[in-house]
Amino acid sequence: MAGLKLYFHPLSSFSMKVLTALYENGTDFEPRIVDLGSEAAFAEFKKLWPVGKIPVLRDEERDRTVPETSIIIEYLDQHYAGKTRFIPEDADEARQMRMRDRFYDLYVNVPMQKVVTDRLRPKGKNDAHGVGEARALLATSLAMVDHEMSDRTWAMGDRFTMADCAAAPALFYADKVIPLRDGHPHAAAYLGRLMERPSFARAVKEAKPYFDLFPKE
Ligand SMILES: N[C@@H](CCC(=O)N[C@@H](CS)C(=O)NCC(=O)O)C(=O)O
Q: What spacing in Å lies between the alpha carbon of 17 and ligand 1's midpoint?
């Protein structure tokens, strides 16, 4: 049995962020799919992390439960380092990388989720005002990404880091809300490079069987 267990769902954008990091280095782990649609499965998962957000990493060897994607990837970089190092050694660069990781999580992934999950709300319970705000924030963020990616390969330049693990699923799903090909050529090209990266390509391939569950407009 692998010492590492990942509680996740293949369709979940934040899960894909951590899967990308795991696949980058071929890190051995036991996949534990959490069926968010099953009350019993979700209640069981909440015993591990009462906040109820996936993914969560469990390290049996060290007896550690590690939630939050950025913390999970930092943990992997610290204890299960592989050929791809996710955190730059230089402290200044590491801080800039963490800023981009936060940016993709909070200002691309989170507003994208707000737009998409609103489609799952019961009739009459939609939050049109909140969705409008989220769409506006997403549009601002994507314009910033497009500008920044005009002169670089990866989020930090030449080197693939945790910020790219965050960017990949965030842009993949944001593209379904605001298509990048319409006016965001550099962001679209960056997403194209991310899609060709074998680690993220594998996460997308494994999510495909669940794509029918993605709520369309
Ligand atoms: N800040 C968290 C966000 C995780 C998150 O939002 N996960 C979503 C799935 S992509 C989730 O668990 N949603 C279930 C829910 O909110 O009930 C992280 O980085 O791990």
A: 11
Sheet of 56-59, strands arranged across: 30-33, 4-8, 56-59, 64-67
Cα–Cα distance, 125 to 144 (Å, whole number): 32
Tell whether ligand 1 has an atom less than 6 A from the beta carbon of residue 14. Answer: yes
**What is the number of other CB atoms lying within 10 angstroms of the CB of residue 72?**
24
pTM of structure? 0.98
Where does residue 11 rank: exposed (0-12), middle (13-18), buried (19+ CB within 10 A)? Answer: buried
Pocket test for ligand 1, best of 32, 53, 72, 117 (most atoms within 8 A of CB): 53
Specify the DSSP element, H or E, that contains 8: strand 4-8
Instruction: Render the burial of 144-180: b for 16+ CB within 10 Å, e for the rest.
Output: ebbeebeeeebbbeebbbbbbbbbbbbbbbbbebbeb
Residue 98 CA: distances (Å) to CA of 26, 47, 154: 23, 29, 14
> Tokens in use for 150?
């005009």
**Contact 55/7 with Cβ under 8 angstroms?**
yes
pLDDT tens profile 150-199: 999 999 999 999 999 999 999 999 999 999 999 999 999 999 999 999 99
Amino acid identity, residue 69?
T
Q: From the CB of 53, is ligand 1 less than 6 Å away?
A: yes
DSSP of 144-170: HHHHHGGG-SBTTBSS--HHHHHHHHH
Nearest CA to ligand 1 atom 5: 53
* Phi, psi for 33 (deg, rounded to 5): -75, 125
